[in-house]
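Milestone M4 deliverable, item 7.
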Amino acid sequence: MPTIPKISLEVMRLCRQSTVDRERIVEALVKDQALALKVLRIANSAFFGYKGTVTSVDAAVVIVGIHTVRTTAVSEGMIRAFPTVPHLDFASYWQHALLTASLAEQLGRALGVDPDEASTAGLLHGVGVLLLHLWRPDAAGEIVREVPPLAFGERAQRERELLGFDANDVAEELVRRWELPLSLAPHGGSNNFDNDANVVKIASKIATELVTGRVTEGEITKPFAISPSHFQRMCEVARAYASAIAIS
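Output delivered:
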């Protein structure tokens, strides 16, 4: 099983506490120079409007917020845990993961689901796919020849047919090994916005459309009280946020 760095896990844990202690988060960040530098770079990105002016990790945490610190800790930890993955375009995967996290947060905020929890679950949504590609590259290669690699819902059926289980099953075990809350593990979900899993499922579908350039509004704008203009704004924010995190 791939291991996620201890500092990333510590930062994630500190960010999840009911009373967040910013000083302890900063202390944890500075133990990992690369992670601290990543947070600094994000704070200095155009997305937050402080380009080239933030010089301390403490100020960076204040500017980007606890949510972005947690997202950065998760993404950096996973990148280190999965440096290369067969049969998967890593750049597209991480773009999809960051888009899903941003969209899940925005959907959660609009629809009464914990936005921070939804965002972290969105970032981890495809982690089982990463592990599946590492563990069974032969089967993964066959699957992505038949199904788009980032269409997690579509490929799950083929995974079950070929292997007897799907990436969600693998992800649950990985989340357990990393000692993260099982609520963050990906689940099938339904098409209702009634919990984190379903918000993430819809966010992932939108992210797939954004990555592939085929965006449709119907699933979001028709059944739920989200206008087309709100939907477009959500997509714009997600693209900008994913770009800020990815390029920093």
